[in-house]
Amino acid sequence: MYLYENRPKKNSFKTFFIIFATSIITAGVIKFAPLLNQVTAKSPNENTIERLSVSSDSFDFNNRILSTPEIIKNSMDSIVGISILQPDANSIFSIGATNKWGLGTGVIVSENGYILTNQHLASKVNSLVTVTLNNGNSTQGKVIWTEENLDLAIVKINANNLTPLPIGDSDNVIVGEEVIAIGNPIGIEFQRSATKGIVSGINRTLKVEDDISSVIMENLIQTDASINTGNSGGPLINSNGEIIGINTVKITSAEGIGFAVPINVVRPIVEKLSNDDEFSEAYLGLYAYDNEILPYVDSRNSDIHGIYVASIVSDGPAEKADILVGDIITKVDNIPMTKMIDLREYLYSKLPGESLRVEVSRNNKTENLIAILSEKTP
To answer: What is the CATH number of the domain that holds 204?
Structure first.
């Protein structure tokens, strides 16, 4: 409601005209409202959510409106608990299980039993984990794929007709977009907690260290949706109820700074597993820095757009193709490359034995090389 100060009276004719015009407009709206409802009504066969009301607690992206409670409710059957050890109770969600066994989060991404989570939760390929579904039932899962540099892992359980959470497009994520994180923070008492916030930043680079190793994680989605211990491996969900990232770490020295790995990098793997029930990872055998880091590692080539080759695996496909440390990969199969995560995503779509045309800049000259991909082994 707006409050106006008292103003001098205007002439009565003008006042009458305004009242008359307002009445005509109001009558027109009332008359044509049923017709507008017919035009905007959806077929009962369409898979849409009934639009009963729109509030400030609703999202409106791509002409599809989902309220926050609807998104959370629709997601819950897809959220699972992940424990690396077998508990001595019926479920890892029993009292005291968190402190005794540890607990993280995973999200179902296919009807046939594939679950995305964090590598630091799932450990190594062929490791066994305990997966607890939303109905409280626990089952054994097997880790079938991991990538430490992405902190991602895929677990397989023997189940069908599960409820996967739809996968969105993380390339379209924008700063300010509202998002929801769901996971198992702190302890069992707060299992499947939902928090809401916005995308605070994109393409973030973070150095993650522990007592054993140090990893540089790139292209992360930053959010102020609360992410706490136990949220790891859970989904970051957009306004359409789709996964746009997998929650991974938070900065403990500041409030409201958490990060998620963009979902697009692992999409090719999920699609292959969902459709074919198998995945063979194609391997190039190198690690490169993003274009944004290039000026810091090689200022002489700061005007070249590409990814900087930082290391080469001995006797791997990259070395055999004569790719060298210090080369700047500008294109792969004529696709421009400026981020290591883009190269990973493309490699996940390829098969071992396939060839790549790799264009590199070396000493300010362009070289076109051919690499034959091998199969990555655990």
So the answer is: 2.40.10.10
Q: Provide the residue range defining the domain that includes 92.
A: 74-157
Alpha carbon distance 278, 372 (integer Å): 21
> Where among 113, 131, 157 does a domain terminate?
157
Q: Rounded CA gap, 135 and 146, in Å? A: 27
State residue 352's pLDDT score. 97
Residue count of the chain? 378
Q: Which of 127, 157, 187 is the last residue of a domain?
A: 157
Residues 33-86 pLDDT 10s: 443 344 344 443 444 333 333 333 444 445 556 899 999 999 999 999 988 764
Rounded CA separation 5/18 (Å) = 20
The parts of the chain modelled with pLDDT lower than 50 are 1-61, 86-100
- Residues designated catalytic: 120, 151, 232
What pLDDT is attached to residue 3?
A: 35
Give CA–CA dist 350/140, Å, rounded. 30
**Structural domain count of the chain:** 3
